[in-house]
Design a protein that fits this description.
Elements: E1 22-35, E2 38-44, E3 49-55, H1 61-68, E4 75-84, E5 92-103, H2 117-122, H3 124-127, H4 131-153, E6 157-158, E7 164-165, E8 177-180, E9 183-187, H5 192-202, E10 204-212, E11 225-234, H6 238-259, H7 261-266, H8 272-275, E12 283-285, H9 286-295, H10 308-315, E13 322-325, E14 338-339, E15 342-346, E16 348-353, E17 358-366, H11 370-379, H12 388-395, E18 401-407, H13 408-416
Parallel strand pairs: 3-5, 6-10, 12-13
Antiparallel strand pairs: 1-2, 1-4, 2-3, 4-5, 7-9, 8-9, 10-11, 11-18, 13-16, 14-15, 16-17, 17-18
Length: 436
């Protein structure tokens, strides 16, 4: 390849800033078609896809033949002139003058034809290169960025919680256990307990990381490894907790609509339902939820939990996320504070996404009184030994506090309009799925 060293190397997402200029792109062949003396190469570089046009008279005969033999996902470096093209998604195409083939890929397994889910999951390391996962994971990154920016703007300090823990946070039936130097340790179910320690040191903190649940569930709403954003704040009550979660969700939707319209279009996601997401969200009590479910022909016995089917029915009655609060305390973990006016209920809330996506946020006021906490731990048969440090938080400067967890994959699945959580994470972990 013989080009002037002054030729700039650019990315496809910025190609519009170089009209009628010679540039260099590096990437992979996404698709290709030929028409007589022209090759139309769809080149992707991780930031976008652009059509590169190679004319027989514009490149050498040898290179023209090499381009004709290129396989899907071959890697190459190209030089050419940026030309405006209103038919292209980017508004531009590249007219090639030269190219260098880095590696000619043969027999790439993922082709434009339809493939089964199992096949695509087995080849997830390659499937990431396709337009659909590209769009979803770009949206995921936007959601993550927004969570960090929003919480930091509200005075929250990021505090990383450990992945290995000595005790359960969300019940002992879904723990992943591992040997730990002659003892036992568990993969974290939530960073919340550690965030509670953090909020009493810094006032407002949040953790963001992977969490693990050994749930033997094959529904579209469950993964064994997923990520959560978990803010925790001192001197925060239930109403303030709900308002914080509403504001975070609205900020996420707003940023995706502003910065990821192209990705929503790739996914054929109708943006109209997202454009209607505004705070405050409708709020209903657990008792009101039961009455609505009864009316809709989906009755739930008082005192029973709400499952995915019930959440879908409830959320379908509203045009934006809905807050359900005041669940029976016996359904909830030991750390949730009980309603002083009705101790049979917890000071908790779930936020259900519309369009059938279910719970995306769960949170509560935390029990700050040591005697009450001990009583609730005893009721649930929880050994206080591994949680002695957590009990210390109630001994030394205890204050009212609250927080919630936002499930990243559930939020991304809803915003993207996709069916299953497995598409909202780069490498999903499911029952029976640990590869790749």
């Amino acid at each position: 390849m013989n080009q002037a060293s002054a030729t700039p190397t650019v990315s496809i997402e910025n190609i519009g800033t170089f009209p009628d200029q010679r540039v260099r792109l590096r990437g992979w062949l996404y698709q290709k078609r030929s028409s007589g003396k022209l090759h139309f190469l769809q080149l992707r570089d991780g930031t976008g896809i652009i059509q590169c046009v190679a004319g027989h008279g514009d490149v050498s005969d040898a290179l023209f033949e090499e381009l004709a033999a290129l396989g899907q996902e071959s890697s190459l470096e190209v030089h050419g002139i940026v030309r405006a093209d209103p038919r292209a998604r980017s508004g531009f195409e590249l007219h090639l003058s030269d190219a260098r083939i880095l590696q000619n890929a043969e027999d790439y397994p993922i082709t434009p034809k339809e493939h089964g889910v199992a096949f695509l999951l087995d080849h997830r390391h390659l499937w990431l290169r396709s337009r659909r996962p590209y769009a979803i994971l770009r949206i995921r990154a936007e959601v993550e960025r927004t969570c960090h920016a929003f919480l930091e703007s509200r005075g929250f300090l990021r505090l990383d919680a450990p992945v290995l823990t000595p005790a359960a946070c969300e019940g002992t039936t879904t723990l992943f256990e591992t040997e730990y130097f002659g003892g036992r340790a568990y993969l974290t179910q939530s960073g919340q307990l550690y965030s509670e320690a953090g909020c009493q040191a810094f006032g407002r903190v949040y953790c963001f990381g992977p969490t693990f649940r050994a749930e033997k569930s094959k529904t579209r709403r469950h993964l064994t490894e997923f990520w959560m954003v978990e803010p925790e704040a001192a001197f925060l009550d239930l109403d303030g907790n709900i308002e914080l979660a509403e504001a975070l969700i609205c900020a996420i939707v707003e940023q995706v609509l502003e910065h990821r319209r192209d990705e929503l279009e790739i996914l054929e996601r109708d943006p109209a339902p997202l454009e209607g997401v505004r705070a405050p969200f409708p709020r209903i009590s657990y008792g009101q939820a039961l009455a609505l479910l009864e009316r809709e022909g989906q009755p739930v016995k008082p005192g029973d939990d709400l499952g995915g089917d019930e959440e879908t029915v409830l959320a379908g009655l509203f045009d934006r996320p809905v807050v359900v609060h005041g669940y029976p305390s016996r359904l909830k973990p030991f750390y949730m504070k009980r309603d002083p006016e009705n101790p049979s209920l917890a000071l908790n809330m779930d936020i259900l996404a519309p369009e059938g996506y279910g719970e995306i946020v769960g949170g509560s006021v935390r029990e700050e009184n040591l005697d009450a906490l001990d009583a609730q731990m005893a009721e649930q048969g929880i050994d206080p030994g591994p949680l002695e440090w957590y009990r210390d938080l109630r001994r030394f400067g205890a204050v009212p506090h609250a927080g919630f967890g936002l499930g990243l994959e559930r939020t991304v699945t809803w915003i993207s309009g996709v069916h299953h959580l497995r598409e909202a994470i780069p490498f999903p972990r499911l029952m029976g799925r640990l590869y790749p």
